[in-house]
User: Fold this.
Amino acid sequence: MSEFAYRLNFDCTLFKLSELILNNCYAFDCGAEDLNEFFACDALAYERDLMGKTYCWLDNTDDKTIVAMITLANAGIHTTHLQNNPKRKLHKSIAYKKQGRTYPAVLIGRLGVNKAYQSSYYRIGTQIISFIKNWFISSDNKTGCRFILVDAVNNPHTIQYYERNGFHPLFPRVDDEKAFYGVDESESLRTRMYYLDLLR
Assistant:
C-alpha cells in the first residue's frame, strides 16, 4: 500500500512540455506569478536554447489539468573556490581517488505544483523529489550524476521543504554564501544553494 493517497506515478502521466500541451491544457497556476509566466511563456524557448528541459504531469482523470511542472538542467558543484567546511563535506562521501574539482549534478531550475494540489493530502512536492532521485540513479540515466542542486528561494516555507526532503545547504552559514557570491553583508540573499547526495 502506497504512503501517498494520490500518486504521481499512478494517478498522473509524465510528459515533456510541448506547445500542444500548453495549448490544450488549462492555464497552469502554482500561486507564483514568475513561475507561471516562465512555464507558459519561456520554458520552450529555454529548451530550444539547450538551457534545460521542462516536464509536466497530467492528471489521468482529466488530461487538461497540469498537476506539476519541473525544469531540469545539467550542472555541477565546483569545489575549487569553496571554503574548507563545505568542501570537506562533499569530499568525504566520495572515494579519495575520485575526488575532483567539479562533481556532476542536475539542477532543479524551476518547480511548481498546481494550487489545487498543494496540500498534505497530495504531497506532490515530496513525490517529485523522490521521482528525480530515482530517475538519476536508475540505469536509464544517460550520464553520471551524483548530486541534485537547487537555488532555493530564501523563504522559510521553501527552505523547510527542501530540508525536509533531504537537501543540505552548500554553505552552512548565510554570511559564507554572501561572501562567495559577492553579496554585501547588509543585503539579504534572495536564494540559497542546496544540494542532495544521490547516494546518501
Remarks:
- The longest strand covers residues 62-78.
